[in-house]
Amino acid sequence: MINYELYRVFYWAAKTGSLTQAAKALYITQPSVSHAIKQLEQSFSTTLFARGSRGVELTSEGKMLFSYVEPAFNYLNMAEMKMEELKNLEGGELRIGGSDSLFKHYLLPYLETFHQQHPSVQVHLLHGTTPEIVAYLKEGKIDLGIARMPIADAQLEVQEGISLQDIFVGGPKYDYLKGKTLTLEQLLAHPIVMFSRTSHSRTAITKLFHEQGYALEPEFELGSVDLLIEFAKKGLGISFVTKEFVTKELENGELFEIKLDRQLPPTQVAIITLKQMPLSKAALSFVDQLDL
């Protein structure tokens, strides 16, 4: 095994792009950094850094090594933080991965309560798609993730949560559709507004239309749930949204549900963690609050 300290030097040199900055971070001299890098390069019989006037850059071999070293150091840092948190919840971090919409419409009340109870715990939210959240977990960048099912991965612990129902909604411009039950063909006679990024809900609805012989081609593809709601309110089309995320708009009449002649399949939210990776006290405390 190569000395752990050599990897520490390599990690900081790669992270900062500077032997001088790496030396400062490690409280050692720059010649010591250079010597450690040289030892590591000799042990692998390859060049890990390209040196230039502005610092150092990883070679292709160095990038490959860093792709393994970085997650390892992330896990070590996480282990140190979790050991510190074992004392009490007067410090530490809670790192959660999920979509912006689930953060806003599902997790926000729980995050508010958690912060009130444990104000010293720093909360970090990392947004992304389900595949990105799974990758964040495996790289040690988050403690837990929240995403829509199905999620099939042997490395993950999947804890089923609340059920969500996706619907089509319209604004006042489409009041003439109130009280009517539309076929899929009748629905497609109107402009459709959908989320632009690939998601489980969009995949499911696209598959449903395809199975019935229809191609679901949105008039608008948007980058956030808030925009889907605004486009529907302004009459720019009929938006495909999660019913639980538009309860206020449905109650005050800004939007109404477009009824279809078939029931759209519900989806479930899941809390995902890595198997055999104990959760910190902060993460356990937060999960205990959730409506699962």
Account of the 3D structure:
By secondary structure, the protein is α/β, with parallel strands linked by helices. The chain has 3 domains: 4-84, Winged helix-like DNA-binding domain superfamily/Winged helix DNA-binding domain (Arc Repressor Mutant, subunit A), CATH 1.10.10; 94-162 and 269-289, D-Maltodextrin-Binding Protein, domain 2 (3-Layer(aba) Sandwich), CATH 3.40.190; 166-265, 3-Layer(aba) Sandwich (D-Maltodextrin-Binding Protein, domain 2), CATH 3.40.190.10. 44% of the residues lie in helices and 23% in strands. The strands form 3 sheets. The chain has a 6-stranded mixed β-sheet with strand order 8-12-7-11-9-10. The chain is elongated and about 75 Å long.
Record field, number of beta strands? 13
User: What is the fold-level CATH name, i.e. the topology of the largest domain?
Assistant: D-Maltodextrin-Binding Protein, domain 2
> How are the strands of the biggest sheet laid out side by side?
8-12-7-11-9-10
Computed over alpha carbons, the radius of gyration is: 25 Å
Q: Main β-sheet: number of strands, strand sense, barrel status?
A: 6 strands, mixed
Listing every helix as H and every strand as E from the N terminus to the C terminus, the arrangement reads HHHEEHEHEHEEEEHEHEHEHEEH
List segments where confidence is low: pLDDT < 50 over at least 5 consecutive residues: none
The secondary structure category is alpha/beta
The tally of helices reads 11
Q: Give the number of domains.
A: 3
Query: Looking at the structure, what is the overall shape?
Result: elongated
